What does this fold into?
Amino acid sequence: MAIFSTSCFQFLLLLWMIVQSSGQVDGGWTDWGTWSKCSAGCGGGTQTRTRTCTNPAPANYGADCVGEATETKNCNEQGCPGWIAVKRSVYIDYDLEKTPLYIKTYTDSVVGNDVQVIVWFYNGLEKIEQVGAVYIYLSSPPQYLLRHCMSFLARANFPTALPSHETEKIWKITLTRTSGIRLVIRCNDVDVLNVILSDSTCSDDNWSTRWSKEVEKIQFNSYDTASDFFFSHRPLSAGITVRAF
It folds into this structure.
């Protein structure tokens, strides 16, 4: 009797397993969901997206899905807007007529220390041509020079006094063409030079040929001993890209 009962149980168990196996369903992944918002607006962040093992869900001893339910990728890896350390003798993509150039100097940049800011302006993406340059001499008295406008040796005193005893200085260089080619240099919110380039203000015979070109790049000269940072108003990948000279 016991043998019969055992055999009956085994038969019923086998029958149950056959019935169940006939309805076995292996799990399947759904499509990936949308990527989450980047965790950072610039400077490097991450995004994630998920999927579920419900297309279909495993049933009746079916296999689970193989793989990961979550995927992650990097995003917004471009540099953030802000102060960028100056690298000398490199081209920097920069539209000066749309975005004034801000330069920060603080290493011995007191008037009389004879350090200098030298930034060149260039035109062209493939064939690069000089437009002009701004030289700022923190001598006593402070002087400036506009290359391809003034003679190379014709340094001139700033018409307006600089904040002489402030070590940290923020310079703003603006170039506009709404009423002539106007160049403005500001130091710590004081306009120290505001000049319209013309035959009367420029002694270089070719000044108009040079300065009439659009400024598309800048370069801090290797003899620049004062510039520490320049300000980027946009992420680097959006138009301000440092390239080796």
